[in-house]
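[audit] Reproducing an earlier prediction to check determinism. Same input, same settings, fresh worker. If the tokens differ from the archived copy the diff job will pick it up downstream; this log only records the rerun itself.
[audit] input (126 residues):
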Amino acid sequence: MKNAVIVVGSHYVGKSKTINLYVKPKLGLSQRAHKFERNGLHGFILSQSFEEAERDVDYVLEQYGQYDLLVLACRPANETPSDLIEATKKLKKAGFDVYTVSIRHHDNEEYYDGKANEVLASLDEK
């Protein structure tokens, strides 16, 4: 089982916030940590989006494709630039089931906590 969860949202809506402030603590990680273990599987988190980090999809797969679980961030396909379609296609080709969790800007912190729960539920999909 290899699962990748892509947190998708426009610039400045809270993708990194959701990952760093809500997902990572639920996995027992500090904000700066990247490696985790869940249900006996090894995972890696990149909270900065492909586009913001100017991170190449092939590089990410080369560096982190050996993990069982990935949590990544990306801008929506209808924005320029967006690596979502390329990332989804290449992750699937590399053997990952790919899930997306969409994020919108929200003033209620419970919203982001709920989105973090969606990320964790997607990691556990079989």
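[audit] rerun output stored. Observation attached for the diff report: The chain has five helices and five strands.
[audit] end
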